[in-house]
Amino acid sequence: MSVRIDGEKSGRVARPSHPLRRVLRGPRPSAVPAFAARAGTLVGLLDIAAGVFPRFRHSRMHTLAEVLPGALGPFAAALSLSAGVLLLLLAHGLRRRKRRAWRAAVLLLPAGAVSQFAYRHSVLGVVISLALFTLLVRHRGEFAALPDPRSRWRALTNFLLTGSGSVLLGLLVVSAHPSRTVGDPGLYDRLAHVLYGLFGLEGPVDYTGNTSFTVAFSLGALGLLTALTTSYLALRPEHPAARLTEDDEARLRALLAKHGRRDSLGHFALRRDKGAVFSPSGKAAVCYRVVSGVMLASGDPIGDVEAWPGAIERFMDEATAHSWTPAVMGCSETGGEVWTRETGLDALEIGDEAIVDTAGFSLSGRAMRNVRQMVTRIERAGYQTRVRRVSELDEQELDCIRQASDDWRGTGTERGFSMALGRIGDPADGDCLIATAHRADPDEPGPHGDLKAVLHFVPWGEDGVSLDLMRRDRAADPGLNELLIVAALREAPGLGISRVSLNFAMFRAALARGEKIGAGPVLRAWRALLVFLSRWFQIESLYRFNAKFRPRWEPRFVVYRTSRDLPRIGLAALRAEGFVQLGLPAALRRRSPQPCPHHTPAADGAVPRGRTAPDDQRTGDSGQGSTLGV
């Protein structure tokens, strides 16, 4: 492929621009946010150091700091400390092109310039401050990103984080003047002095000279800054995260009715904690959730393939408007091709989905011997299975299944995003499939009666289902998951189901190829690492479990913008899937098991023995496997 430069097109040789001209022209418009963020971070750290450490205010580093934009100089430690904290808070917003961060910066820079000239008569500092101010104003169009979803819980988070940081900085301020400290106060006295100072009160630590005023003003400024930022976040209008409205859900169900056969993950788009953007024609949609500044879509777009580009364009426009990082988890090969073609993003294979064709499934043959023996043993132990549509169950039995599913979950919160529906028995989900295992035990009845395990499937078009979650009582015999999958596969033809999508196996290709003869050293090393990580995450065991049923494998991909975004996308996916939680410890959230409404426990109150079952929900594309009872 030949490439011509502009000089070749016009017949003239392009001349390199002069270095001085490039300096005078300034950074490229697209680079201004990153440049401003780096400058703000540097100056913020220098200002904090100037406000905390007396010697730093007279060092060469601070001589450089006081001529950089935003530096308030050594004339007031309190102002320097406040400015440093504010600049650090603004730096991330400037990098993400946030409009409000830009507004705060253009207010802070002139204030800093006036302060420098009034107290230090620093002409150079004023010139540089105004130069950056002019640069920000000139390129104000680069800072047009809308606010992120927010709630007043962020005010509490800000109070805890900023308050903790103020206490730590306050300890540094109180301890940074040993030669002027009266006596030898201990840590308790210093901490008490900090807490008093944050509220503008006089503490137990005393200093000689004017140091007492410097410390008092610095602590008061930190306390005021914490109060003002928390009040602002608490009083500003809420901008809740996108949620699936009733109209959005109705439109998505109509699209799934026409095109739901294309993607096994399509029905998971109906999670009500997702938002949706539709193509201009309304014939396609992309469902997403925003986590930590990442706009995370899951699976393929819903609807007509011809309309996918329009929905993808709307998705990218929404990400650009808020300066979110776009990403897609678990799309198919066709979806990945469309995403990369329409957006210029890149795709990476992260695993395979196990799909079983029910017409060819059988327990006969040597390859199925282990599954056949396990199923036979469980059936001889007295377990019975039932496979029914949700619409066939009454509300009392659905309540029992929901309660059992919650009690058998091994984590404090529900997991899943890209491959989980997040609910059971909703009236709108009557086509979902539920497989249950039962065994009556009159000697030791459990809180859920004879119910011992549950599998929940969501529709995949008219002739398929996709596994949503797997839960079982750990006090029951092992092998119930295999029993229920076999039961569902056997009953599927009678229910008009020809395809069943099982769990997602992370890095399945590497595990399979790495154990074959002739695998190279790099592939073997990669497989060894995955096997090692399987001690904590269900990677290899999930692949082995899926492989028991002799499925065909369909690759799934993650779509991303640049390689440096992958760690951030991975963390956002872990949070979305529920593997990383920011909140109360699980011990404070967990509920005690409750008996089913229609079940009466024995008089002695016996409950099943054994550990609490781990989360058997279907894995998402976050890099972690479901913890199956295998």
Characterise the protein shown here.
By secondary structure, this protein is α+β, with helices and mostly antiparallel strands. 44% of the residues lie in helices and 13% in strands. It has 21 helices and 12 strands. Strands 1, 2, 3, 4, 5, 6, 7, 8, 9, 10, 11 and 12 form a 12-stranded mixed beta sheet that branches. A hairpin with a 4-residue loop joins strand 9 and strand 10 (464-472). Helix 3 runs antiparallel to helix 5 (77-95). The radius of gyration is 31 Å and the shape is elongated. It starts with 5 loop residues before the first helix and ends in a 41-residue tail after the last helix. The model is unreliable at 1-14, 68-75, 584-593 and 598-630 (pLDDT under 50).
Helix content: 40-55%
Q: Name the overall outline.
A: elongated
The overall average pLDDT, rounded, is 77
| Classification by helices and strands | alpha+beta
Number of E strands? 12
Distance between the termini: 53 Å
Gyration radius from CA atoms, angstroms:
31 Å
DSSP strand (E) fraction?
A: 5-15%
Number of helices: 21
Are there runs of 5+ residues with pLDDT below 50, and where? 1-14, 68-75, 584-593, 598-630
Question: Biggest β-sheet, characterized?
Answer: 12 strands, mixed
